[in-house]
Amino acid sequence: MTRWLAALPVIALLLFAGLGLSQLLSPQKGEFERVSRDAPDRAFETMEGGVVTYSQPPGDAAIVVNLFASWCAPCEAEHPQLVALSKAFPGRVYGILYKDSPENGAGFLDRMGNPFAGVALDPDGQGGLDFGLTGVPETFVISHEGKILLHVPGPLDAKAVREVSGALNAPREP
């Protein structure tokens, strides 16, 4: 009987370690939701020489904001998805160049093609932190009122493009 009692802490520790390992090996993407909140009220300088804020998005429809960098391999991998979104929703896809120089960003977009209606600069990364960025690339759909409707962590894939398209096509709330 005493051996059994002595083994209980070891068994509990092994069960706890197994549970932790299973969570590490199969995380649920999107468990930490960032939707239904305001876009950050931050003014970004743009590559084009202007200023933009996504709490008051340009135009009168929902937009896509993609945070990317020239040094980011997953950003390069998702780029064809952004090009497709840009063709499907002209003038509604915007980029934020995260912790990168305008020269490197321009080179990246020259090489890959520029799907963005405008590109904001975030050289120190504070704008990304205001969005709740966990790592580039990340994509946000922002309503015309400045509310974050959808957050896609990581590179866009076909499923994510369908979700983004659905959010962009959703009827406006009165």
Automatic annotation (TrEMBL):
It comes from Hyphomonas johnsonii MHS-2. One of its GO terms (cellular component) is cell envelope. The lineage of its organism: Bacteria, Pseudomonadati, Pseudomonadota, Alphaproteobacteria, Hyphomonadales. Its main location: other. The keyword Disulfide bond applies. This is Putative thiol:disulfide interchange protein. Residues 33-170 form the Thioredoxin domain. One of its GO terms (molecular function) is antioxidant activity. It is found in: Cell envelope. Gene3D superfamilies: Glutaredoxin (3.40.30.10). One of its GO terms (biological process) is cytochrome complex assembly. Keywords: Cytochrome c-type biogenesis, Disulfide bond, Redox-active center.
